[in-house]
Amino acid sequence: MIEISHVDKWYSTAFQVLKDCTTNVAKGEVVVVCGPSGSGKSTLIKCVNALEPFQKGDITVDGTKVNDPRTDLPKLRARVGMVFQHFELFPHLKIIDNLCLAQEKVLGRAHDKAVTKGMMLLERVGLKEHAQKFPAQLSGGQQQRVAIARALAMDPIAMLFDEPTSALDPEMISEVLDVMVDLAREGMTMMVVTHEMGFARKVANRVIFMDRGEIVEDAPKDDFFGKPRSDRAQKFLSKILSH
Amino acid sequence: MLGSFDFDVIRRSLPYLFYEGMTFTLTLTALSALGGLIFGTAIALMRLSGYKILGRIAGLYVDFMRSLPLVLVIFWFYFLVPYIGQWLTGASRPISVGAFASSLITFIMFEAAYFSEIMRAGIQSISRGQPAAANALGLTYAQTMRYVVLPQAFRNMLPVLLTQTIVLFQDTSLVYVLSIPDFLGAASKVAQRDGRLVEMYLFAALVYFTISCVASVGVRRLQSRIAIIR
Amino acid sequence: MTYNWNWGIFFQPNPMGTGTYLDLLLSGLVLTLETAVLAWIIALITGSIVGVMRTLPSRGAYWFGFAYVEFFRNMPLLVQLFLWFFVLPEILPKAAGLWLKQLPNAPFWTASIGVGLFMSARVAVQLQAGIGSLPRGQRQAATALGLTTVQGYRYVLLPMAFRIILPPLTSEFLNTIKNTAVAITIGLLELTGQARSMQEFSFQVFEAFTAATILYLLVNAVVVTGMRILERYVAIPGYITGK
């Protein structure tokens, strides 16, 4: 579904953020990407839907080459859902309108169909009664669930999560993770940048460990947690699991 | 058209334009900025003093001045100042004060309203802990302002004050309505006399543009230097 | 010698034969408002376009926006009006110049366009700052949903940016009204101009200027009140502006 091969990215000639990154995510697979901050994991995931440009290598999503100038990027992005660290709901739109905007403007769905779809998804994330509120009236956890519903409303073939729980108060993390676990169990293709190792243990097929722009480790979940091969991954795991 | 463009009229009038016109403009700008700054600081301090009546009067003054077009204010003072002079000196006739003095008073009074708002924002940008710390050391209100708050605030707002001074420099061209030979007035006089409007106004525009541009680049440099120091 | 007050002057006929002196001033007020409104429309439209250009990723657009703003910001408004009024008709091709010179209401059109363009640079700067103050993720979220750049601005960035800059835009509108007085120099008989001619005809200088002052204060109060209502109308529940 998502093939990343030999991707290099420089911010300036002196600073390389991604170094020869190669991996792939099969249909229905859940891949967790972890690593210390500044390791390039958010950048890598943003390259998948071309939010970040890269200079070398190729990324293909469902047979479409992301870095081909002829690719209709808005069309491609509409098929790949993305959830951001800071939710990025549109503050001037009601919750239901947040869900309808791209359905109508990008997919061209009729308003009532978009609303029906939106309400269905809000019910699924347990926020149906908040449809007429504005984002600022919801808690962080609720906003992130809305953001997931907004991405799902586009009927994506894959979902990208960029540290979806990092900006949340601790007591709100589980409500978001629950939604993500359900999604994984239903067979959604997911690429998740997160430090939530509990989530990784529960539903991930593979775990990728990145450090200084490189993919250091790319292993099935059990291998990764059982006996990571690299020193760096071991150190990282011991740090975040020690509490 | 450009073919009939007469550069010589500009060359011939350069001494008049700069010795008379630009000198007037720059002197008016500098003195107004200085006076506006002093008077504006006084107004800002009145507004922040905590005395309700004093604050209200200062606030009304600022709102009043900022509601009026500068052209109208120029006319107001042009006609009003002689009567104020008469009243102050007890003379039997309105006192003629001359174009420069009249303009200077106008711009000081007018710009003070704008400068005071910049000062107020600058003073309010200093954290409350600073005057508290100064008070705790036993400094009086005046000492706190003089030695602790104003020096810090002044540095924060220096770029804004200078930008406002560039605006003031451009605004002084409005004394044209009193037929005073500031830089634009001088250019206009030559333009009318020699029938060379295109040349003179384009030249005036170029001069204003160059001076303002160079000054804004300077302010931007200063701004980035201050930003690094902080 | 003391000044002879005569407040009754307003109800005496003016020498233009257009009713009383009060009518003279009111006709000036109407012209001030007409000029200001037309100038404001021009300022909003062109200022928005230029402001948006300064936030686009394209370097060319950015530099055009930069040059535009610097051009209109670094010359006195009075000089700009002279350029449009006296210089432009002379340097245009003969036919176009002649047409301009014979235009009825030339001071009105010159003042509206001149003040409008002058103010557009300031609107552009405000809008650029407004868009710049939005979280970077908002643009990314819009892009990730498949919205095009135009759609992203239209539905996501601009609605928020304009709400944020509403208070400074109010001041800029008030400045537009005040700046129309500069057009007295090209013969526009707006409020200040009519007060000046009343002073010249009747010698009641202080009555004339007092009346004009009161009218300006009234206009200010009306605009400020109107904008407060507008601000409340477009306010977003739960969203704290200026954060």
Automatic annotation (TrEMBL), chain A:
GO terms for molecular function: ABC-type amino acid transporter activity; ATP binding; ATP hydrolysis activity. It is found in: Cell membrane. It is a peripheral membrane protein. One of its GO terms (cellular component) is plasma membrane. Keywords: Amino-acid transport, ATP-binding, Cell membrane, Membrane, Nucleotide-binding, Transport. Residues 2-237 form the ABC transporter domain. Involved in beta-(1-->2)glucan export. Transmembrane domains (TMD) form a pore in the inner membrane and the ATP-binding domain (NBD) is responsible for energy generation. Belongs to the ABC transporter superfamily. PANTHER family: AMINO ACID IMPORT ATP-BINDING PROTEIN, GLUTAMATE_ASPARTATE IMPORT ATP-BINDING PROTEIN GLTL. This is Arginine transporter ATP-binding subunit. It comes from Bradyrhizobium centrolobii.
From TrEMBL, chain B:
It is found in: Cell inner membrane; Cell membrane. The chain crosses the membrane at residues 24-46, 67-89, 95-115, 160-180, 200-219. CDD domains: TM_PBP2 (cd06261). It holds the Pfam family BPD_transp_1. GO terms for molecular function: transmembrane transporter activity. The keyword DNA-binding does not apply. One of its GO terms (cellular component) is ATP-binding cassette (ABC) transporter complex. InterPro entries: AA_ABC_transptr_permease_3TM (IPR010065), ArtM/GltK/GlnP/TcyL/YhdX-like (IPR043429), MetI-like (IPR000515), MetI-like_sf (IPR035906). Residues 22-219 form the ABC transmembrane type-1 domain. It is a multi-pass membrane protein. Signal peptide: none annotated. GO terms for biological process: amino acid transport. Keywords: Amino-acid transport, Cell membrane, Membrane, Transmembrane, Transmembrane helix, Transport. The complex is composed of two ATP-binding proteins (GltL), two transmembrane proteins (GltJ and GltK) and a solute-binding protein (GltI). Part of the ABC transporter complex GltIJKL involved in glutamate and aspartate uptake. Probably responsible for the translocation of the substrate across the membrane. Belongs to the binding-protein-dependent transport system permease family. HisMQ subfamily. This is Glutamate/aspartate import permease protein GltK. The lineage of its organism: Bacteria, Pseudomonadati, Pseudomonadota, Alphaproteobacteria, Hyphomicrobiales.
Automatic annotation (TrEMBL), chain C:
It holds the Pfam family BPD_transp_1. Keywords: Cell membrane, Membrane, Transmembrane, Transmembrane helix, Transport. It is found in: Cell inner membrane; Cell membrane. GO terms for cellular component: ATP-binding cassette (ABC) transporter complex. The keyword DNA-binding does not apply. GO terms for molecular function: transmembrane transporter activity. PANTHER family: GLUTAMATE_ASPARTATE IMPORT PERMEASE PROTEIN GLTJ, MEMBRANE COMPONENT OF AMINO ACID ABC TRANSPORTER. Belongs to the binding-protein-dependent transport system permease family. HisMQ subfamily. This is Glutamate ABC transporter permease. It comes from Bradyrhizobium centrolobii.
